[in-house]
Amino acid sequence: MSIVQVIDQPTIDRIVASVMPKNATEADRLALATMMQSYNLNPLRKEVYPISYGGRLSIVVGVDGWRRLAHETGRYAGGEAAYGFDSEGRVDSCTYTVLTKDGGRFSFTCWLDEFRQGTPTWHKSPRHMLRIKAEVHCLKAAFGLAGPTEYDAEAEAAVPAAAPARPQDDRIADLNRLLTAPSTEA
């Protein structure tokens, strides 16, 4: 059971206030509270959290949130990462594979030169961050999950204007239908 299912709104508001940066607006706090409730995620477990990108605050679902949502489908059987290496023996990619209880196998590869960001975490732990990127993309594809992950201005700019994004409300409704669907486990 998630934190959102067992506590009242004033407590949710206090949790939101405790994890938000001091400069967060009331709209930022509402965005986090909405994400907590819509996805049933816990910011104290880093399932959803605020993060600043390019001077603006974004609310993102973390890898722990995606893992929990995948487990809640009742179909998640596990996952594994495999690294690729360049000709000099350096890691240049990570392929993450998700296995489902119904025999499904989904893989997603992330290339370091395409996903590396200039943050301290990427400089300190590039393989770890690459695996997380590959895992999140794979979990989302394997279980039809949708929602915000790390903000990436370059990726956003690369999306053609002819391919409109689905409205947030539609993505949340799809996820809620997935999470409330009866389990197919015996």
Descriptive account of the structure:
The protein is an alpha+beta fold. The chain contains 9 helices and 5 strands; from the N terminus they run H-H-H-E-E-H-E-E-E-H-H-H-H-H. The strands form 2 sheets. A 3-stranded antiparallel beta sheet has the order 3-4-5. The protein has a two-stranded antiparallel ribbon with strand order 1-2. A hairpin with a 5-residue loop joins strand 3 (76-85) and strand 4 (91-100). Helix 4 runs parallel beside helix 7 (126-143). The relative contact order is 0.12.
Q: Choose one word for the global shape.
A: flat
| Sequence of secondary-structure elements | HHHEEHEEEHHHHH
Largest sheet: number of strands, sense, barrel closure: 3 strands, antiparallel
Number of strands: 5
**Straight-line N-to-C gap:** 20 Å
Average pLDDT metric: 79
* Continuous helix count: 9
User: What is the C-alpha radius of gyration, as a whole number of Å?
Assistant: 17 Å
In brief, what are we looking at here?
This protein has 186 residues and is α+β, with helices and mostly antiparallel strands. The protein has helices at residues 3-6, 9-19, 26-39, 63-72, 112-115, 120-124, 126-143, 153-158, 168-180; strands at 48-53, 56-61, 76-85, 91-100, 105-111.
